Amino acid sequence: MKTVYDPRGAVGTDTKARAARIGSLDGLRLGILDNTKWNANKLLRQVRDDLQSAHRFKSVNYYRKESFSRFADPKLVEQIRAENDIVLTAIGD
Amino acid sequence: MAAVLSSHSRVSDDTDLVEYYYEQGYSDGLPVVPPTPEKVAAMVAALGGDPEHVEARVPPRWGVLTREVLAVNMVMAGCLPRYARIVRAAILALCEPAFNLNGVQATTHMASPLLIVNGPAAREAGMNGGCNAFGSGNRANATIGRAIRLVMLNVGGGWPGELDKSTLGSPAKYTYAVCENEAQSPLAPYHVEKGFDASDSTVFVIAAEPTHSVVNHVANDAEGILDSMVSAMSTFAHNTAVASGHCTVVLGLEHAITIAKQGWKRADVRNYLWMNAGNKFRQLAFEHRYGKVYNRFLPVWYKRDLDSRIPITPGPDNIHLFVIGGEAGRFSAFIPGWGHMSNPVLREIEGKGKKEPVCVDGTCFL
Hints:
The complex is a heterodimer of chains A (93) and B (366). Helix content of chain A is 27%, strand content 25%. Chain A is an alpha/beta fold. The longest helix of chain A has 15 residues, at 40-54. The two termini of chain B are 35 Å apart. With 366 residues, chain B is an alpha+beta fold. The chains are: A alpha/beta (93), B alpha+beta (366). Chains A and B meet through β1 and β2 of A and β1, β2, α1, β4 and α3 of B.
């Protein structure tokens, strides 16, 4: 018999529950996270305008990451979590 | 909770191990050296022993890189145990948050980490910084770079089409590791410019496009040679021009000697290149032909009038200068980077490295 190796290493995983689904957008606080990719703001602003014409949000808040490729600052994520009920984000390459 | 993978198992004696590793999907496309318990043990010992010691978690798969897993990949790449400290340091540098390996692995761009080694460690490993340094023919260069790529593939999960979304890729995604030609360079070594002692050994990693040749058989002065480099830098097709960040300039030996004879130092070269290379904003904005362009990838402090000069990098310190190559030939190379999304990392091979915060805003500059 010969020995063979798995070169991949283990992967740690955590199981997280999905957030409760939203039935209606009216009265909610909408957060928009712009990842700062080339066309992300164009796409997100158009979607924001479309949503605002169809729904009555309690508030609409716009945020931007420092870099589309890097993680969002954990403080920014906490701020978005505190100030919003739902969050919309997108890549706009 | 960690999903524990069995690190090794047994197969029948008549198994073709080269084909076995192909079938498992553990190759970069070239045949791998089948790891044996003896070779893995020798590599683990060279890495410092303790096979379960965790060196890093490698994105975007975030696989746990233990010393044994690193050793297995190094053996598969064809490394000798004496390369271990270089590969280990390079991997630790790549996994520092400032480098953003997560993005480098996943991007549609063709960037690959380029490793440049300085100090005695390069010589002791037998790395080539001379003739054909970026090419084939040297085991240390070839297998150190290949080991890094195998770790990025197997542990980091950067499999083409899955977590690596590169549109074109590049040959540098097989191996991309060299050292500076310190023995023949007329300039101070790179790591000395950055505050290390010449007797220290360092690894420098940068997300990089492949090498672009810079030819100049005519000029007998620094300005003439560097104007050819300026020409290679001053296009708006490469990522550094469009997305800022850092780039690498490699002076071939003949060019470096001509430049040094005039008394120019490393900073003079970098400052000259920074001062003279660049584009007009109108080029980067395509004359606003497709709508008013701001270019969010460039620093906010750049003027964006159509005739504003847009430098290739925000400052001369973002141009990383090395002297590499053989004795004959009036050639140098320009190596564009990936963009502001990744910062290069310089790390002492035996050092502990810097503890950095999560780098989300570009403040973690080299």
